[in-house]
Amino acid sequence: MKRSRSLKLAFMGASALALTACDQPQDIAIFESVEQCSQQDGFDSDSCQRNMDLAREEHISVAPKYSAIEDCEADFGAASCEVAPVQTQSGGSVFMPLMMGYMMGNMLSGNSRVATQPLYRSKDDPSNFRTADNQKVAGKTGLSTVPGKVAKAPTVKTSTLSRGGFGASAPSLRSFGG
Amino acid sequence: MERISIEERDDWRAQAEEVGFDFHTFDGEPYWDETACYRFSLAQIENDIEDPSEEIENLCFEVVDRAINDSEVMARLAIPETFWDYIRNSWLNREKNLYGRLDFSYDGKGPAKLLEYNADTPTALYESAVFQWLWLEQAMEREIIPAGCDQFNSLHEALVDAFKAADIEGPFHLASCQGSPEDEGTVRYLEECARQAGLNTKFLYIEDIGISPEGHFTDLDDMGIATLFKLYPWEWIMSDEFGKSVPESGLRFIEPGWKAILSNKGLMPLLWEMFEGHPNLLPSFFEDDPRISRLGDLSMVPGLAAGYVKKPLFSREGSNVQIIRPGQRPVSVEGPYGREGAIIQALHPLPIFEGNHTVIGSWLIASKPCGIGIREDNSPITKDSSRFLPHVIY
Q: For chain A, how many structural domains are there in total?
């Protein structure tokens, strides 16, 4: 047979089905420092340090980036931003919020589904820790339980300097495919 | 190969609209046309279309191999020099391709002749993969065609498999231009295939793509775009304002940069130069090739005596194509293309079935032939308004 055996009827422009699999609550822990982590029952200082290092590394790539410090402070508050160790294409500075803490799995429940990552506090909701994807985590340090989607690895978020740089070459035709 | 007039399914328009295939009629003229179908033998499909398609794809890879190391070839293809290294690396890194469509002139006898390769932004995919398949199943069920018919069309399965094998991590972005329902339909269908392969997808318009301070491309949520399917030709990407940021952006494009070599009409003279006399190729030359320009009269060129076709390097949907036959007025289609030069290809007129000029589009998914789509036009040049007809193997 030279044709598809079956064809789950493919719709054009079908609306997105939200994939909610794996969104089970996860046990996590939040700390502002390695010392604070080491004092938590069942957490050893080696693991605390290793996870802090991981979160610091992630911080550089996943923290929201801004080309003006004013824009960063508008989102995260005065004196809450730092210069990122990257540059714009034209050599200008890039800014990102300070890392205010980190999230890791709860070592007591042996939870491996939690992606260790940096946490931030935004200007409009300073009492809560938030992920780089702007998901609310918790208002206190120590152990918590959060929805699965909050504990997943953050996407690399950036900021946009300009849009519309693609598309200018298209003549106005019904279709230019072919 | 024959054209058979058949009964339409009385409810096909309603079905088309239900699945979002809403460009089935254009300016009151049918685009999807099931008042007839084309019948092929299995041998015609396998020996005359499928095998040559695979073989030509391999010849094309030899052209890419040559072009990336030959600045003269890259210049003849009008590819900006700033992209030569980028395109070269995309090939050397074996960046994966998804799809393409080879267009053949074929009448059921003799070798199919390659007219061009839509290697970068082919459309008419949904109607080939899905609506044609659905027609076959229902036409057999309703006894419009005999039971036991087959169709050269495993496109949908091949697309889903290709996405599974594409090594795409994180969200997969897909983009088309605003204001073209047909192109958006093609991209929405590919998005559906990617979802069926388990990918997490995000659609946006080409015009909405942004750039971050570090030179990464972004979507409307300011998320970095890691992998982008774009129904937008490479030559336009390269000439757009954001084009200069492409080589350093780290973005993986589907189709990859090396497809810029194959989607160019200059592929045809390059193939002829390297594989002259191949049964599926037509004599083709760059317009400014001294071998033909110094003759003055193109009908003196071997292979062009019966007429020739002039096509701009970047023409699409038949625009700016001109057919010249000795002693006849040229036939041409107006359009916006042609500044970058043109090619001359020996005329191999499309076969005529009951007054219709018929072209066969042979689909390659991840470089494997896996289906065809047939277009008919009242004129010898296939355009975006040409009708799409289904086919059977019987």
A: 2
Any idea where the domains of chain B sit in the sequence? 2-262+357-393, 283-347
Q: Has residue A106 been placed in a domain?
A: yes
- Full residue range of the structural domain in which residue A85 is found: 64-98
Asked, for residue A8, whether it belongs to a domain, the answer is: no
Residue with tokens 């985590």: A137
Within a domain: residue A119?
yes
Q: A166 and B242: CB-CB below 8 Å?
A: yes
Both structure tokens of B75: 């210049």
The pTM for the full model equals: 0.79
Task: Select from B188, B205, B218 the Cβ nearest to the Cβ of A160.
Answer: B218
- CA atoms A122, A125, A127, A129: torsion sign: negative
Q: Are strands B227-230 and B172-176 parallel, antiparallel or unpaired?
A: parallel
- CB–CB of A163 and B216 under 8 A? no
The CA-to-CA distance between both ends of chain B, in Å, stands at 10
Record: contact B239-A169, CB cut-off 8 A: yes
> In this structure, are A118 and A84 located in the same domain?
no
Q: Are residues A43 and A109 in the same domain?
A: yes
Q: Which of A7, A10, A163 sits opposite B210 (nearest CB)?
A: A163
The encoded tokens of residue B242 equal: 């954001």
Half-sphere exposure (Cβ direction) of A169: Cα atoms closer than 13 Å: 18
pLDDT along chain B (394 residues), means of 10: 97 89 85 97 96 97 97 95 96 94 96 97 94 95 94 96 90 93 91 93 96 90 92 96 94 96 97 97 92 74 87 79 84 71 93 96 96 93 84 96
Looking at the structure, do residues A75 and A52 belong to the same domain, yes or no? no
Residues A153 and A107 both lie in one domain: yes
| DSSP result, B103-119 | EEE--SSS--EEEEEE-
| DSSP code for B15 | H
d(CA B162, CA B366): 6
B77: which 2 tokens? 């293809």
Q: Closest partner residue to B218 among A89, A158, A164, by Cβ?
A: A158
